[in-house]
Each structure stands twice: as structure tokens, then as C-alpha cells.
Design brief:
The complex is a heterodimer. Chain A is of the alpha/beta class. Chain A has a domain of 91 residues: Beta Polymerase, domain 2 (2-Layer Sandwich), CATH 3.30.460. Chain A has 3 helices and 8 strands. In chain A, strands 1, 2, 3, 4, 5 and 6 form a 6-stranded mixed sheet that branches. The longest helix of chain A is centred in the last third of the chain and has 12 residues. Chain A is globular. The termini of chain A are far apart. The radius of gyration of chain B is 21 Å and the shape is globular. Chain B folds into 2 domains: 40 residues, no CATH class; 314 residues, Cytochrome-c3 Hydrogenase, chain B (Orthogonal Bundle). The relative contact order of chain B is 0.19. In chain B, helix 4 packs antiparallel against helix 5, helix 4 packs antiparallel against helix 14 and helix 11 runs parallel beside helix 14. By secondary structure, chain B is mainly α. In chain B, the strands form 3 sheets. A 3-stranded antiparallel sheet of chain B has the order 1-2-3. Chain B has a 3-stranded antiparallel sheet with strand order 6-7-8. In chain B, strands 4-5 form a two-stranded antiparallel sheet. Classes of the chains: A alpha/beta, B mainly alpha. At the A-B interface, strand 4 and helix 3 of A face helix 8, strand 7 and strand 8 of B.
């Protein structure tokens, strides 16, 4: 059975029913969630029986200079569908986002990697420290202003 | 008299023969029992994602070879599929079959390494590893015929493959397949029912399906936990929708099942190769009018993924309209499979640690990138 991809609109409509005013915008492939509601949305995506996203494929961080975008690729093994959720965080110092570690354990190393290389700190992660580089390294190399 | 004991923290690696490269574990023992595990990574970090932002789309292929250097072909394939999605192009049918064929050869080679070292770590020094490397060597010879390189192949390109097969490739492939069928049977006779192997692996370090899914585990480790999930079936790419194969899954979720799943996947890969050889037809191997320096639409993004030998390998590319990717995130299966180290090791003994680590089959080139 081949997986289907949920469009941003399908996902946004479903979210709007259950959690009003958490989706900022959506397009054909993804939804953008308000950053302070990220854990609430993640928990809903994980536990809602019709969505049932039990598998977190990957978390990516992108530096768009005026904001950071964190991208969650999700799949449901039971419902055979996948979706993309994104969130924008503005600012460059002290950038934080709530962690989804307690929902998907698979976020563990990926969130640590994003903190290490992109400088977005995840609150609620039990072991938020650098993973690739050593403690004491200055800066976050994947940022666009790091040389 | 009671003997006083206290927990002891031991450092394993980064230079340790059983850690598959520069992997380091900080383990706390209570006697011989493991009570705490902390993986320490980054000794092979080369900044591949940052380097990709400085190279054009075709040049990045050489970086992908060096991720999981035991399955370069599959890395090439994942990256090329992501670029093709980004540019909205599609490779010609012959190229798709060639990619599928070499990817399966590479999967066999990678699983042979995994199995060989897995046995080696249980104390069978030399013999089984040499059996597997003998066969792997033949596969590398085939790759050499295709592209001149054995490990860092860079054989695939966005829109196809680098060049068509030389005329002596097909007879060499069929000779290899004939010999390998017997070699694999020998290997199975030698290993599958081996008493020492069974004693060391049966029932050791089971990984429940719930934990495996929650920890985003993929590949043979996930399938050994009883979950029939293979991206070649679930999200078919290249020629996988046109060939027939089964997904072996484990029932006891233990170290033996992870080994068993890999052995079965080698058989399935052989089936796929045989079908590719029968179905492939002459034709173009690369989109002819594609420019050397590729450019995607500004703001375009694509997530291309394959079922690599270690699990789901994904490339998340974002374009700003320039000649290089604006961002090239690599979803590395080896790194994410390591999330379960704690679940596999805690409560087991020092000697099982080596075997369990071998059963995850990590590759540090991919873990650290």
C-alpha cells in the first residue's frame, strides 16, 4: 500500500476544527504552525485517531536570515499518509522552541543537532547540549552568517 | 562478609575495534550489567550539509558518496531523486532500471559487511568476514566497470546515470549472480543455525515495535521489530514499483532477528536484480538536454528519500534560485537508529553490548556527516 500525502489545506482544516487559531498559513504541501503552539499541535497530530502520525521522519532547520524555519516531516504507519508541518521563529539571539521529545523520542538527536549547528534551543528536551561539536565551541555553523 | 560494589563508568571508543569507526559510548556498569549509556558523537563531523551549500547541484554528489561509504550508490540515488523532485524532471526508464540494479547490488554489499562484522564481533575472527568480503569484492569490481571507482562511485546524476554500461558488464553480472547464489548458500549453512551465534543473539536485546516507531528507527532494525515498512514499497521510486519482492520481518525483535532480516534481504535484492536484468531495455540513460549547472525555481523545496541499507535516507533540499542548494538537510538513518542504544543496552551485559551495537549496523560517516 502506497502512502498518500496530505495537502496543507486538508491538514489545516482538520486542525482548525480541533484547535482554532493555531495554524498561521498553509499551501499545497505544508502548514505553518504558531511556534508557541507547536507542542499542542504535535500532540494532536500524534494522538488524533484520524491523523495518527506515529512516526517522525525528520526535523530540519532552515536559516532564512529574518527567521528560522523548523520543518517536521511526519508519517502515519497505520493510516498510510504523510504530512509536513512547519513553524517560523523570528530573531537571531536566544531562539527557542518547545521540544517534541516527549511525543516522539526520535526527536532526541535531531533537536540536539539543530541546537548545535543552527542555534535553536528546544525547551523541555532533557539533554539539550551540543552533539556534533564540543561544548565551548563558539557559534552555530549552519547559520548563514557563520562565515 | 559482604563485598562492597559501586557503579563504574567506562569509556568505550572512539578508537575501539567493535565500534564501527569513531563511535564513543560512555557506559556505567554495575558489575557486568549496564545501567546507563550515553553515546558521544561528532568525531567524524565534516560539515557535509554546510559544504553542500557551497557546491553546485552536481558537485554535491561527491559529498553523498562519503556519507555512508558502504552504500555510496544508494546515497547517490537518494540525492539525485531529491534534485529531480526539485527540478520536476524524471530519469529515462533505462536509467531507472540501472539505478535500481546498482542500488540492490550495493545493498547486498552493505548487508554483507553488516553480517560479516556482526559475526566477527562475536569472536569468529576472520573466516565469515572473509567469506562476505570475497563476495563484496566482486560487487565492487562490477562498480569499477561502470564508473571507474569502487567505493566513492558518484555514478548517478540528476536525470539519470553518468554513463551506460560497458558491453562486458552484463556477462560479468550474470557470472557474479551465479557464483553468489552458491556463496550465499554456503554462508547461510555456516551461520544461520550456528550454535554459538544462536546462543549469543537469540532473545538478546529485544526492541519492541512501539519503541522502534516512537524512536523513528528505520530499515532492517525496524523490520526486525516486526513492522513491515519499506520505503521501496510504501513510496516507490525508480523501478521498484515494476519489480516484485517481499519484506522480511522479525517475530522475536532480538539481535538474531536483525541479523536474519539482513540475510533475507540479500535474497530479496537478488530477486530484484534478476527482474531488472530481464526487464531492462536499450535507451537513453540520462536526460540529454539537461544543462551542466542546474538551477531550480526560487523557493522550491523537495524531500527525496530512499530505503537505504541502514534505513530511510532523506535529502531535504531548498532552492533560492541559485546554482547551489540553499539548504541541504540529510536525514541519516544511522544517526536516528542510534536513538535506541539505551533501550537495547541497559539491563544487558558488557559482552552483549558489542553484539547489540553490531546489530544496529551504524556507519560513522553517516552518523556524524
Amino acid at each position: 500500500m502506497i502512502i498518500s500525502r496530505l495537502t496543507g489545506k486538508e491538514l489545516a482544516d482538520r486542525l482548525e476544527e480541533a484547535l482554532p487559531n493555531v495554524v498561521e498559513e498553509w499551501d499545497s504541501t505544508a502548514i505553518w504552525v504558531k511556534p508557541n503552539h507547536m507542542v499542542q499541535v504535535a500532540h494532536f497530530l500524534f494522538s488524533d485517531p484520524t491523523l495518527d502520525f506515529n512516526y517522525l521522519n525528520s526535523i530540519s532547520a532552515v536559516d532564512f536570515i529574518e527567521y528560522f524555519e523548523i520543518v517536521y516531516h511526519l508519517t502515519s504507519f497505520n493510516k498510510h499518509h504523510s504530512a509536513v508541518a512547519k513553524t517560523k521563529i523570528y530573531g537571531r539571539d536566544e531562539v527557542t522552541l518547545p521540544s517534541v521529545y516527549n511525543i516522539w523520542r526520535g526527536a532526541d538527536f535531531q533537536e540536539r543537532e539543530i541546537w548545535d549547528l543552527m542555534g535553536v534551543r528546544f525547551e523541555g528536551h532533557p539533554n539539550m547540549k551540543r552533539i556534533m561539536l564540543w561544548e565551548g565551541f563558539e557559534g552555530h555553523p549552519l547559520r548563514k552568517d557563520f562565515l | 562478609m559482604t563485598i562492597r560494589t559501586e557503579p563504574m563508568t567506562v569509556n568505550v571508543g572512539p578508537q575501539h575495534p567493535s565500534t564501527h569507526g569513531v563511535f564513543r559510548l560512555r557506559i556505567t556498569f554495575d558489575g557486568e550489567d549496564i545501567i546507563e549509556v550515553e553515546p558521544v558523537l561528532g568525531y567524524l563531523h565534516r560539515g557535509s550539509e554546510k559544504l553542500a551549500e557551497e557546491r553546485n547541484y552536481v558537485q554535491v554528489i561527491t559529498l553523498t558518496d562519503r556519507l555512508d561509504y558502504t552504500s555510496s550508490m544508494i546515497n547517490n540515488q537518494a540525492y539525485c531523486l531529491a534534485v529531480e523532485k526539485l527540478l520536476e524532471i524524471e530519469a529515462p526508464p533505462r536509467a531507472k532500471y540501472l539505478r535500481t540494479l546498482v542500488a540492490e547490488l550495493q545493498r547486498i554489499a552493505s548487508h554483507l559487511i553488516a553480517v560479516g562484522f556482526f559475526i566477527q564481533e562475536m569472536g569468529a575472527f576472520g573466516t565469515p568476514l572473509m567469506y562476505t568480503f570475497r563476495s563484496r569484492e566482486r560487487i565492487l569490481d562490477l562498480f569499477e566497470m561502470l564508473c571507474g571507482a569502487r567505493v566513492t562511485v558518484s555514478y548517478m546524476r540528476p536525470g539519470g546515470v553518468f554513463s551506460d554500461t560497458p558491453s562486458d558488464f552484463w556477462p560479468a553480472l550474470s557470472r557474479f549472480m551465479n557464483d553468489f547464489r552458491d556463496e550465499l548458500s554456503d554462508l547461510e549453512d555456516l551461520l544461520m543455525e550456528n550454535e554459538i551465534l544462536l546462543a549469543r543473539t537469540k532473545g538478546v536485546s529485544p526492541l519492541s515495535p512501539d519503541i522502534a516507531v516512537n524512536c523513528s528507527v528505520s530499515g532492517p532494525v525496524l523490520r526486525a521489530s516486526g513492522i513491515s515498512w519499506d520505503w521501496r514499497k510504501k513510496d516507490p521510486y525508480d523501478a521498484y514499483s515494476l519489480v516484485d519482492f517481499d519484506i522480511p520481518t522479525g517475530s522475536n525483535w532480538d539481535n538474531y532477528d536483525r541479523f536474519w532480516v539482513r540475510m533475507q534481504e540479500i535474497r530479496q535484492s537478488m530477486r530484484i536484480i534478476e527482474q531488472c536484468v530481464l526487464q531492462i531495455e536499450p535507451g537513453l540513460v540520462r536526460i540529454p538536454e539537461l544543462p551542466l549547472v542546474l538551477r531550480a525555481q526560487p523557493g522550491a523545496e523537495a524531500y527525496g528519500r530512499v530505503e537505504a541499507s541502514k534505513g530511510e535516507l532523506g535529502f531535504y533540499l531548498i532552492s533560492d534560485g541559485g546554482i547551489s542548494p540553499y539548504r541541504c538537510k540529510i536525514r541519516a538513518p544511522s544517526l536516528i537508529n542510534l536513538t535506541v542504544t539505551e533501550h537495547l543496552l541497559v539491563g544487558w551485559k558488557l559482552a552483549d553490548m558489542i553484539v547489540s551495537l553490531g546489530s544496529i549496523d551504524i556507519n560513522m560517516g553517516e552518523v556524524d556527516r
